[in-house]
Every structure is written in C-alpha cells, then in structure tokens.
Amino acid sequence: MTSIVSQVPWTVKQKMKKRFQKCRVAAVRIRYLVVFNLWNGRRVREIEAILNIHNTTIYRIAGRFRDLGEASLWDGREDNGTEKLSEHYLATLDRVVRSCPLDHGWPRPTWTRELLVETLAKKLGVRIHAATMSRALALIKARRGRPKPTVRCPLHPAVKTRRLNQIRTLLAKLPRREAAVYEDEVDVHLNPKIGLDWMGLAQQKEAMTPGKNEKRYLAGAMDVRTGEIHWVEAERKDSWLFLAMLKKLTEVYAEARVIHVILDNYGIHSSNIIGIALSHFAKRVRLHFLPPYCPDHNRIERAWQDLHANVTRNHRCSGMPELMTNVRRYLRKRNNMKRSWAAINSAA
Fold it and tell me: In terms of CATH architecture, what is 157-192+211-347?
C-alpha cells in the first residue's frame, strides 16, 4: 500500500507528525491519518474500517498527496475569501431568529432554513446554502421549540414597571419580623397531563386515562426567604380555598407582624369574602397584586411546573386519592430539601 503514496525523507515525516499534533481541524487530521496508515503498510480496507471513511476517499487523498505533497492535506478553500459565517452574520442571524417572519414582510409565521437564508441575503447581501444555515444555527445555539402562549398585559408599560419595582423594593427591604410569600393556585387532574418523553424507535408510549376526569385544587404560598411551600386543598377553586390559605398563613407566621402575599389578579383573590377576612382575622395580611397576565413574575409558578413534571404529567394513578398522595409526598420532599439547604447555608 505504500506504493500509492509517495515516500518522503524521515525528517519530513517528523515535521508532518508535529503539524498533525498541533492541528485541530478534524477533516485535515483524517487526511494526515490516511497518509500515515498507508506509510505503515495498512491496506485500504483496513483504513476504511479504522477511520470510518469510504475507500474512494482514501484513494483520492493518496492521489492528491502524490501530486501536491503535504499542502494537499489542508483545506484549499481557506483562500476563497472572507468567511461567510462571520461574527456579524451570526449576530444578525441571532436577532432574526428571535423575531417573527411576519416582522420581515414574509406571509409565513414560522422560520425555515430557506426563509432565514433569504432574509439574511436581503439584509447582508450574503447568500449561503441551507445546509450551511444549519451549521450557523448550531453556532448560535438556536433550537426548535414550542412557543409559550402569553396574553399581553393591558397596563401601560410604565405602570407595569412601577408595580413590579414596588414589589421588588418590598422584598429587598423586608424587615426581619415580617414575612412574604408568593401565592397561586394549581389544578390537579385525574386525567393525566400529556408531556414530552423519550421513546424508542417506532414507539409511541401510551398515557392511560381513567376516562371520567376528577379535579382537586391546591392553593400554595412559597416563602420568599426559604422557598418552602405551604398549601391547602379543596374540591373547588373559589374564595373559600383562598380564605383557607390565608388562615393557614396566619397560623404558620403567627409571630410575624405583617404577612405580605404577592399574587395574581384572579377573581377569588378580591371577592367580598376575602375583604371581610382581611378586616377581621387576617388584619396582618397585605395583598400585593402583580400586573395582569404576568405569571413569570410569580415564583411559585415554577414550583407548580415542577410538580406537574414530577407527578401529574403522564401519571399512572388509578384514582384521585393515589394521585393526591403523590402530590403531597412531592411537596413534603421539596420542603425538606429546602430546609436542608437553608441549614447548610446558615452553617456556612
């Protein structure tokens, strides 16, 4: 096999080995390895199996090495001009991907590689292949995912920002003898929520549903300092559920002079029943309403997402008692972990 590549002096081989060791381009390293293996007397079929490349590629590399020497092992396209996937191109691509095609005059509401190619060609005058666009998307770490359905906040941006800043200031300057919690309700359905899961080739897992759905509702309050969640349960999501939550807060934080409750604008939070409660047994409770349709600013929402991911999504419980047992077990385990972390941090 050494006959299909030209022999070179021993000193040249040593220099080639040094350049090979410093090379970080995978394709170039493969070409060096082809030549080295041929010099060592290996057959083409053996090299094909070792390097996982086709035999025609081996013959082509060997032929170019005979004609042009070591220079043939390097990518001749390096002198083709400026790299198309420049930092400016990738930065522009990142901004475009984060927008919608409708913003750029296209009738389609979702991006395709071809549409991105055309948009960038119009903006920068640089046209690339769709396959190169895949590489560019990987370089900016773009991914295909499901958009999050949201509702636009009806408040003026300045009003929304002012309300959020007031809550942030409250939490930042929270006195030691006062408590603050994020409050929200969550639905627990006997019919499982369907979520993404890993599956084998040609397999589609089944999520068995009991048929007739049942519901339970939890009202939860997450302590802003410890992250622990206190909760109450009910069969209906109404003002009485929220009233039970307020009562539990007054018991849990019996020593607190004021209990600040950060919550959304759901109707049960501002009913006449709650108004009466706040003027009687829950005088220490202060309600701080977030701007409408801003769930991302209520930290307990993430805890409910984790609850669904770990318990209710694709579950196999045959009845509501079993499902609620799993819900309580998860929340108790989560609280124990939060207490452990708090103890470690206080000791440190």
Answer: 2-Layer Sandwich (3.30)
Q: What share of the chain is helix, strand, coil (3-state, %, to 5)?
A: 55, 10, 35
Backbone torsion region of residue 283, taken as left when φ is above 0, otherwise alpha when ψ lies between -120 and 50, otherwise beta: alpha
Whole-model pTM over 0.85? no
> Dihedral angle at the C-alpha atoms of 161, 164, 165, 167, nearest 10 degrees?
160
Task: Give every CB contact of residue 22 below 8 A, 6+ residues apart in sequence.
Answer: none
Contacts made by residues 30-39, CB under 8 angstroms, sequence distance 24+: 31/61, 31/72, 31/73, 32/73, 34/58, 34/61, 34/62, 35/5, 35/61, 35/62, 35/65, 35/73, 38/1, 38/2, 38/4, 38/5, 38/62, 39/2, 39/5, 39/7, 39/13
What contacts 289, CB < 8 A, 6 or more positions away?
163, 263, 264, 265, 269, 270
Contacts 24+ apart (CB under 8 A), 16-22: 16/70, 19/70
pLDDT, one tens digit for every residue, the chain (348 residues):
556 777 888 888 888 888 889 888 888 899 999 989 888 888 888 889 989 999 899 899 888 888 888 888 887 655 555 678 889 999 999 999 999 999 999 999 999 999 999 999 999 999 999 999 999 999 999 998 888 888 889 999 999 999 999 999 999 999 999 999 999 999 999 998 888 888 888 888 888 887 788 999 999 999 999 999 999 999 999 999 999 999 999 999 999 999 999 999 999 999 999 999 898 888 899 999 999 999 999 999 999 999 999 999 999 888 999 999 999 999 999 999 998 888 887 776
